[in-house]
Amino acid sequence: MTGPITAGVDGTDESLAALAWAAREAVRRDLELRVVHAWRFQPNAAQDVADRDAQERWVRDAAERSVAEIAERHPGLAVATDVREGGPVETLVAAAAEAELLVLGSRGHGPVVGFLLGSVGQQVIAEAARPVVLVRAGDRASAEAGGQEIVVGQQGDPEDSAHALRFAFETAVARGAAVRAVRAWTLPPVFAYSPGSLQLADEAGGLEPYEKKALAAALEPWRERFPDVPVVEHVEMGSAGQVLLSVSGRAQLMVVGRRAHRTAVGARIGSVAHGVLHHADCPVAVVPQG
Question: What is the pTM of this model?
Answer without folding.
Answer: 0.85
